[in-house]
User: Which sequence fits this backbone?
């Protein structure tokens, strides 16, 4: 694929063409991908900790029952009580993510030229550190408010990691804007940006509403709660519709980094709606609207059931996944539009100087330079 | 410009999530100063007696708070309770554990158990009007009426401790009420105490309001010193021994004792279940006739549950919690305008109750023979399902069922739910013969 070219021509606003060795940030990219692959499970485990109220299964911090975090006997951990298993596992995984984010910063400083990406890597490290510290404080103070902030910050870290992985990837750096690559390639207009923004917006709203439902206050009136749930469900379907529209719009943009995740997004939201329904059922019983399904007859809600907690946790984790995916899609939409513009101006410039090149390289022109640097 | 377009959404993400986080800070941890008062009941009294209840309600609240404390600091009015057993009906330490803020200590002992497990459905004061209540069918129980469905005792009696405790283990299948099997049994016991506490507190609040209007003469204003409930607040049983007892105190104390005594009495009101009679085809056949009121009918189960319990009969009925503010005040539950004031006061939307479809074999109160026996004898308190008239002895008459007949009905109901007939009379006769044969050949 053209985007995987190791060397590519780059156009900046000044019109200068430079050569950039893309291999230089390969490690940075690998590390960011690793962080994505670690943070999502971390969100799962964290969700389980909350669902099981196991947050206090290990009473001290940063140690575990006086042991150093990494020296805690493996057998006691694996075969001990489930509470302890997930809480200690959460801490271990968190620590690993911490190390990875340190490595990311180091890699970024050594390899990355784009200052804003370096900034992002530092931001990730700070976020991970504060997340860990919040978790520790929560344990030491045994405070649920802090636990909640800790929980709300998780998706933010995840989104940041995903964005970092996206902007360091080969398809970002070596991305080529190919006009007319497909018979009916369409340029991305403002409509796409709007729909993309709306998708991100609705994903948050869902997280926010979901958190309100999950951490409902005792004095919330039944009407308010009903309204919250109704909104949560309605906007789930609105979001589903949006992801479909978004996919239809970007489908033929000629760029897989954009059309693929937006296709996944439809599936993610579909699954999320199922998981949400499951979450309702395992928390509040079989709803009357689903009474026509014979399986629900005599359904018994189990407090702290295992499968049940997995469903609820999956719902929470998919919420983060959807938010991150839609954020990445939106980012790619902007990127695509930026490239299209760069090409436009680039072609015009090149047009005047060298006709030949403009034709030959119109699908080769790409940029490793980010918009910030470019517009500076 | 392009940079802004990329970064703005990211910042927005962070922002919104942080704001959400901050918004919820008030959340689980913040404390609730007061139990919400039973405004629906106040409105019911106001409507039925045609007397304003504001003054009475305000004073009742004071007394209830003085005697029962707050969600953060529940108390038990032992000093006003006469029976020693009733003084120990609940344990103050357990109440403390069950109530208030949710947190856990270094031993991973959970506190604020009711807030953690129950409040979303049952509400702070156990009014069955928690945030998630409106979305459920049936609605979560309002403990404050002091009426419970799934118990082993007489229809009008309170459940026993074991009833509540078993209920928490079992859950109520087919409703939102979960099984708390996986919660520590210690924690469950604390919750049982707290349910009893809320039920007593709620019933006291309701009945004291009735008394304030009916006996103490509350109207627009509070009555004379002696009858004013405010005279109770801050009163202690010890230092006022010598002084004359205010009327209000006598009334309130009588009320309180009547309620707690009923809870203490519960174990004596457990419905005795005579030995199970043969679960055979004949018994099921007799049960079928009784169920369908074939011979004139002492009971008519099919009248509500439909032939063979298939729930095909159209019924329009409501439970007692709904009837309190509707039919008992001559208000039609369907009359939205008339119901509105009660809804504003916190009542849930009136919702019909339907006789169970017995062919599903789903029993909310438990499906064992013994439990079903009691269900037939006592009916289901708070619902239209009536008690069956049962004779003490097995004397045969046309007005009452004999225990054997009750068992027959139970057997029939069980077969509806798919339980196989256990000792088929014919089969067992054959088996008997066979075993005799074997014995002979040996
Ligand atoms: C796009 C779709 C959806 C998204 C992104 C989403 C997201 C979320 C998130 C993130 C949470 C947990 C918040 C937290 O723990 O901080 C949540 C909670 C919840 N969601 Fe959804 N949700 C979606 C659709 C649905 C649907 C269709 C239902 C159907 C009834 C539903 C029912 C629930 C319930 C009941 C909770 C509360 C969980 C609890 O109490 O533990 N969700 N949602």
Assistant:
């Amino acid at each position: 694929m053209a985007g995987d070219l190791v060397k590519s021509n780059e156009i900046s606003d000044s019109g200068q063409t430079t050569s950039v060795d893309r291999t230089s940030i390969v490690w940075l990219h690998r590390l960011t991908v690793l962080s994505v692959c670690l943070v999502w499970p971390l969100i799962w485990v964290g969700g389980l900790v909350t669902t099981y109220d196991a947050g206090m299964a290990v009473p001290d911090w940063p140690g575990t029952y006086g042991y150093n975090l990494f020296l805690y006997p493996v057998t006691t951990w694996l075969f001990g009580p489930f509470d302890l298993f997930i809480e200690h596992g959460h801490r271990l995984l968190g620590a690993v993510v911490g190390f990875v984010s340190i490595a990311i910063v180091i890699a970024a400083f050594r390899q990355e030229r784009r200052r804003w990406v370096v900034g992002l890597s530092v931001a990730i490290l700070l976020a991970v550190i504060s997340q860990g510290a919040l978790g520790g404080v929560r344990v030491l103070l045994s405070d649920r408010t802090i636990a909640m902030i800790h929980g709300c910050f998780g998706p933010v870290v995840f989104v940041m990691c995903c964005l970092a992985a996206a902007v360091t990837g080969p398809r970002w750096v070596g991305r080529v804007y190919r006009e007319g690559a497909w018979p009916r390639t369409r340029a991305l207009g403002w409509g796409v940006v709007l729909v993309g923004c709306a998708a991100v917006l609705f994903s948050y709203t869902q997280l926010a509403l979901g958190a309100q439902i999950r951490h409902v206050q005792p004095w919330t009136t039944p009407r308010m709660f009903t309204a919250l749930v109704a909104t949560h469900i309605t906007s789930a379907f609105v979001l589903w519709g949006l992801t479909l529209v978004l996919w239809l719009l970007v489908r033929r943009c000629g760029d897989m980094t954009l059309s693929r995740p937006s296709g996944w997004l439809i599936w993610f939201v579909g699954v999320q709606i199922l998981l949400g329904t499951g979450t309702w059922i395992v928390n509040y019983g079989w709803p009357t609207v689903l009474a026509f399904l014979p399986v629900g007859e005599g359904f018994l809600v189990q407090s702290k059931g295992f499968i049940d907690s997995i469903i609820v946790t999956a719902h929470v984790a998919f919420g983060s996944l959807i938010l991150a995916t839609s954020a990445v899609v939106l980012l790619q939409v902007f990127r695509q539009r930026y490239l299209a513009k760069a090409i436009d101006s680039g072609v015009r410039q090149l047009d005047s100087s060298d006709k030949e090149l403009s034709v030959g390289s119109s699908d080769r022109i790409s940029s490793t330079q980010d918009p910030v640097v470019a517009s500076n | 410009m392009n940079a802004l377009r990329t970064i703005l959404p990211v910042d927005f993400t962070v922002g919104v999530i942080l704001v959400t986080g901050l918004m919820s800070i008030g959340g689980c941890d913040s404390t609730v100063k007061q139990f919400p008062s039973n405004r629906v009941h106040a409105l019911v009294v106001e409507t039925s007696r045609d007397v304003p209840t504001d003054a009475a309600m305000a004073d009742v609240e004071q007394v209830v708070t003085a005697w029962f404390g707050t969600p953060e600091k529940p108390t038990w009015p032992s000093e006003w309770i006469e029976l020693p057993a009733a003084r120990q009906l609940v344990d103050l330490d357990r109440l403390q554990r069950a109530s208030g803020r949710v947190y856990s200590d270094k031993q991973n002992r959970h506190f604020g158990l009711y807030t953690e497990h129950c409040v979303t459905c049952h509400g702070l004061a156990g009014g069955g009007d928690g945030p998630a209540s409106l979305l459920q069918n049936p609605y979560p129980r309002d403990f404050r009426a002091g009426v419970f469905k799934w118990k082993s005792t007489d229809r009008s009696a309170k459940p026993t401790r074991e009833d509540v405790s078993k209920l928490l283990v079992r859950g109520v299948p087919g409703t939102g009420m979960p099984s708390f099997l996986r919660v520590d049994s210690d924690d469950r016991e604390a919750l049982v105490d707290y349910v009893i506490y809320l039920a007593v507190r709620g019933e006291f609040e309701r009945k004291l309001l009735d008394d304030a209007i009916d006996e103490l003469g509350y109207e627009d204003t509070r009555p004379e010193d002696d009858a004013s409930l405010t005279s109770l607040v801050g009163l202690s049983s010890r230092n006022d021994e010598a002084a004359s007892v205010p009327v209000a105190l006598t009334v309130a104390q009588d009320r309180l004792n009547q309620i707690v005594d009923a809870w203490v009495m519960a174990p004596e009101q457990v419905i005795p279940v005579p030995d199970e009679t043969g679960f055979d085809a004949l018994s099921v056949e007799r049960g079928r006739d009784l169920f369908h009121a074939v011979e004139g009918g002492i009971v008519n189960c099919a009248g509500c549950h439909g032939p063979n319990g298939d729930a095909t009969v159209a019924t329009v009925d409501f439970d007692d919690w709904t009837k309190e503010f509707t039919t008992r005040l001559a208000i039609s539950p369907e009359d939205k305008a008339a119901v509105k004031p009660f809804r504003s006061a916190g009542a849930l939307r009136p919702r019909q109750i339907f006789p169970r479809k017995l062919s599903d074999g789903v029993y909310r109160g438990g499906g064992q023979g013994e439990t079903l026996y009691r269900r037939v004898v006592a009916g289901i308190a708070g619902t239209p399902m009536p008690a069956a008239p049962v004779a003490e002895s097995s004397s045969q008459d046309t007005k009452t069922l004999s225990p054997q007949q009750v068992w027959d009905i139970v057997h029939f109901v069980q077969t509806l739910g798919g339980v196989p007939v256990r000792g088929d009379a014919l089969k067992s006769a054959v088996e008997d013969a066979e075993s005799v044969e074997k014995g002979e050949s040996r």
